[in-house]
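Input.
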Amino acid sequence: IYERMEVPHTFDGYPPPAPPPTKKMDIFKAEDYKLVDYKAAQAPEKLTTDYEDLIQYLTASLGSDLAKVRSVFAWLSSQNVLSTQFPKVVKENTPQAFLKRIKYDRTLYSDFFALLCSKGAGYEIGQHELKVTNRWNAVHVQGAWRLVNVPWALVKTDGLEEDKTWIVVEQCGEACLPRAESKKEVLQDMDEFWFLTDPEDFNCFCFARERRWQLMPEPWTAEVYHGMPKFAQDYFTSDWELLSEYKSVLKADKGRCQIRFAHPAN
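Output.
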């Protein structure tokens, strides 16, 4: 059962949603925020017992709203919730309590991200603000609305619990050591694609029924969304361009169907 937090749908004092005037690449380069990411990932675990202490650590030394949002995003991305062993009893209304709810599917990452950013911003005009839409967020940074999908940004893979060296367990068909299953843990990384994603790319994956929050000059209808080709995420970072019709179904001509792409290198 989800426990939805009391996070406002929108906050007063902010401009209405509108397409951002620039691309993500014009305002954000991940390499410029390496120190912000590093500090956020190194936040002491004890800070998860108090919102004020955590937000102070993540944002106090940062001057821009974008840097603050990035710090919150980086910290949340570094929390390996599924592998964390939480105490049986945790203090309510704390970051630790929220993380524990996420682990057991009792609340959403988007709610937690909104809550953290709102506590850091203080709802003042010109600072960052969140609008929760199901499982993703819109943030107002540097004078424009941008899209963030926190749960999709958390890349999870299975890995060995600790570094193992190779040893001989079998020789000439005979077992030298008893076989044992390798212990695994969930490794977590951050997918940059889902931080401040350009709306024209984001909307190929996530459809906001409240059309103004698509942040598109010409918002899509449900029919347009479902009629789009199924793009892989790598398409939008590859510089390839689809020249054929933007349709999920193409009609073959005499049993053949041509799909054309272009690339700047060709």
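The first helix runs from residue 24 to 27.
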